[in-house]
Each structure stands twice: as structure tokens, then as C-alpha cells.
Amino acid sequence: MTTTIVRATDLLSADPICAAAQDEAWQAVLADHGPEAVGTHLGTHADDERVVTHRFVCTLPGYPGWEWHVSVTRASRSRRVTVNEVTLATGIEALVPPAWVPWADRLRPGDLTAGAVAPTAPDDARLAPGWSGEDDLAEVLDPGPLHPVNWEPALQRRRVPSAYGRESAASRWYSGEHGPRSPLAKSAPGPCGTCGWLLTMGGPLGQMFGICTNLLSPADGRVVSFDHGCGGHSEATPAAARPGRVPTVVDDLVVDELDMGHS
Q1: 187-198 burial by CB neighbour count: b if 16+ within 10 A, else e?
Q2: Which residue has the higher pLDDT, 212 or 110?
Q3: Which CATH number belongs to the domain containing residue 30 in this structure?
Q4: How far apart, in Å, are the Cα atoms of 237 and each of 190, 227, 233, 234?
Q5: Closest to 57 (Cα-Cα) out of 91, 21, 95
Q6: Which pLDDT score is estimated for 256?
Q7: Please, what is the end-to-end C-alpha distance for the chain in angstroms?
Q8: Which of the listed residues 134, 161, 188 is the one where a domain comes to its end?
Q9: 157 and 171, same domain (yes or no)
């Protein structure tokens, strides 16, 4: 069943004297903004008893689809109309800015600079309760091989990465520039999992990722997947290099040999 909401103002009939005050409303816009700002009359609607709004086209540059709304009123038993206010409002086809998004929701990787603070929501699904001070944390930590109970009871962090948070981080790292699908990894002589520069990590993510310690590698100090790779592999040899295609050079310069002993 469809429910129709009827506002009280929808049941009002526009006051005839106020509705007829189109010229007074137009003059109010004209006085405030000049003749180049106001166009044709679009209509009226009742706001209250003896209160009517007149709508005009806004012709200001940069405001297509906007309208001037002029509210007029009169006292009871008076035929004199008074202008209440002139406002610029959006029409059905008005160009408007996108909806405001909080700064914390607009942040992207690399946006945080010195002094910037990105607050974390209390119910962020990427985090789970950490050390609680209780002897048994079974009720506040999700069990399982990826998140064992009491897995770090002494660090006293209020929250730690949840199973969802770890999975989303692993997915982001694996599909990024330090995963197996990057051009660098595809041209590497060997994977990071067999490289002596790989520093292993503890915890569940250590089964799939490590940290590169090769200062010559573009991944130095970064988390890399075991099947990532670069030209700085510890066991690489000159023969393991994969040179690119050598361009073919065509010499089209022909030199005629002259016999200087004949005339």
C-alpha cells in the first residue's frame, strides 16, 4: 500500500491579493540584484494564510536552473502587500554541488600529512577488541586459527585488527604494486619467497607476506607477497636477466666505390 504524505500548506489556497502581487515581487528582486538577474515569472504557492511565494527564473551567470523565491504577505483586512524576503533557491534542473562528504570519509592513501589526524569510528569492522584486562578473552576475541584466543594479551592495545581487517589488508597488498601481478614481479628472476632479502613476519599474515630489506629494491621496507619479485633477488645472476627486445637497425646508406685509376 502506498502512503501519500499531505502537508498542511498543500491544502491552502493562495491568497488572491498576495498571488496577484507579481509586479511587487519582481520589483523586489530587481531592486536587490538588477534587471540582468531576474527572468520570467514561474508561478506561486501558498506558504501560510495570506503568505505567498512568487517564483522567478534566475538569469545570473553560473546559476542555470536556479530560481528567485519572493515571499509576500499582508495583514488581515488589508489590501497592502509587504515583501518578506528574497531568496535564491534551486529548481528541478539546477546545477548544485555534490553532497558534502566528511573529511574522514574523503581520505585516500597518501593524504595524511604531518599534523593531520584521521579518527577511527568506534564500530569500525576492521578492528576487534584487544587486551581487556580480563583473564579470559574468549568472549571478546573471535576464535579460530587466524585469530587465536589471547593471541597478544600483554600489549594492552584497546583494539587490534579483526579477521575482516586482516583479510581486507591482505587483499589490498596482494593486488597492489608489491603483489604478483605488478610488471616488476612478472619480469623478476625469482619470487620474494626464495630471496634472502625477505624478512619474515609473525602472525597469520606472515604465512603469505614478508618485508623486503634490499636497499636497492623499490620495495625496500615494504610488505611484499611471497610471489612478488624484482631484479634485486639475492640469487639472481647476470644470466637470469631478461633483456628487452633489441631494436633492429637498418642501414640504408649505400656508398659507391670509385676506381680512381680509371678516367
Answers
A1: ebbebbeebebb
A2: 212
A3: 3.10.450.630
A4: 11, 19, 9, 9
A5: 91
A6: 53
A7: 111
A8: 161
A9: no
Q: In terms of residue numbers, what domain contains 129?
A: 125-161
d(CA 139, CA 134): 10
Residue 103 has pLDDT above 60, yes or no: yes
The angle subtended at Cα 47 by Cα 41 and Cα 51, nearest 5°, is 80
Would you say residue 4 lies in a domain? Answer: no
Q: What is each CA distance from 159 to 16, 126, 132, 146, in whole angstroms?
A: 66, 10, 9, 16
pLDDT at 75 over 80: yes
Structurally, the chain folds into a number of domains equal to 3
| Set of cell numbers at residue 41 | 515569472
221-248: average pLDDT: 77
Look up cell 527572468; give the residue: 39
148 and 194 part of one domain: no
pTM above 0.70, yes or no: no
Question: For the segment 190-225, what is each residue's pLDDT rounded down to a tens digit?
Answer: 999 999 999 999 888 999 999 999 999 999 999 999
